[in-house]
Write a structure and sequence with these properties.
- This protein is α/β, with parallel strands linked by helices and 306 residues long.
- Helix content is 30%, strand content 17%.
- The chain is built from nine helices and ten strands.
- Strands 1, 2, 3, 4, 5, 6, 7, 8, 9 and 10 form a ten-stranded mixed beta sheet that branches.
- The N terminus is likely disordered.
């Protein structure tokens, strides 16, 4: 197998992959804000049934959950891995093998979950896997807190972008994610994503083959900000993207010092957002129904498939 250890990894010697621009030498074992050095850590690689219907389908999405995160929001639902404390170290070659194994298991796609800080390594793994016969669509499932330059590195590698748009209000971004300028980065990144992959394309089963789905997790008490995000996305892209409005916010231990969000979203709060989206003309969208705001929807990070 081709040696990939020296391909583009010099980008990690003064890491500026994400907007944090920590400039640490991850190749020397130093970790940035994301809590990860250059070694790849993965907590789970398995068929995942809880994505949007056009992503999971009946067969499941081949979700690879990477450890660490450049956001580390106080309300993170995947906090067990985002803080970098859980994860199994693997090589680039092993990551490529995992992609192939998920394809063999019948996954509809390869779903890279929280991949931003591993972009360089992931690109190399995808190159190896495609040499071995990987044909599945590749999903880049991220926080939206991205540099355009990094997203451009993925041109021709990613088929479906699944970014969050968490905040329009910078004060919320600072309070809950210590991410000044979040909306600026998210807007620029999403524009690049749409330019790369174009309008949505589905197969005969209704499974997405390419396109952009922007997710927004509604927070308690943040109706105005949520409406601003939905309005911006619709006015900017119309039906070139799908908007996924999520009600699954779950107040975990990390929000005990943030009383305004230390509760679940009410049905009324969520219904008002959905009604607003319909009123302004959103047609390409996804909504959630039932008891999705439940910790049982958070997967077990037990190293399955790693």
């Amino acid at each position: 197998m081709e040696n990939v250890n020296n391909l583009s990894l010099e980008l990690l010697e003064e890491c500026k992959i994400c907007p944090r621009q920590c400039k640490v030498n991850r190749n020397q074992g130093k970790a940035g804000y994301c809590k990860e050095a250059s070694s790849i850590f993965v907590s789970r690689a398995a068929l995942h049934m809880w994505e949007e219907p056009c992503i999971s389908g009946e067969e499941g999405s081949g979700a690879v959950f990477f450890s660490g995160c450049a956001m580390r929001c106080v309300f993170c639902q995947n906090h067990l891995i985002s803080d970098g404390t859980i994860g199994k170290e693997i090589s680039i070659e092993r990551l490529a093998d995992i992609f192939m194994e998920l394809q063999q298991k019948g996954a509809n796609n390869i779903n890279l979950v929280t991949p931003s800080h591993y972009v360089v390594q992931i690109v190399k793994a995808l190159e190896l896997a495609k040499e071995q016969g990987l044909t599945l669509p590749i999903i880049y499932n991220s926080s939206g807190y991205e540099k355009v330059e990094t997203i451009r590195m993925l041109a021709g590698k990613v088929d479906i972008y699944l970014p969050d748009f968490k905040y329009m209000d910078d004060s919320l971004a600072k309070r809950y994610s210590n991410a000044a300028g979040y909306s600026k980065y998210a807007k620029e990144a999403i524009e690049e994503m749409v330019n790369q992959v174009g309008e949505p394309l589905f197969d005969q089963r209704g499974i997405m083959k390419k396109g952009v789905i922007v997710r927004h997790l509604a927070l308690p008490g943040a109706e105005a900000d949520s409406k601003a995000i939905i309005r911006y996305l619709y006015e900017t892209y119309k039906n070139k993207i799908y908007i996924s409005i999520m009600n699954q916010y779950t107040p975990l231990e990390g929000v005990k010092d943030y009383p305004e969000i230390n509760r679940k979203l009410t049905d009324r709060e969520y219904d008002k957002l959905v009604d607003y989206a319909i009123t302004i003309g959103v047609e390409n969208g996804f909504i959630q129904e039932g008891e999705t705001a439940d910790e049982s929807f958070i997967p077990s990070f037990d190293y399955e498939g790693v």
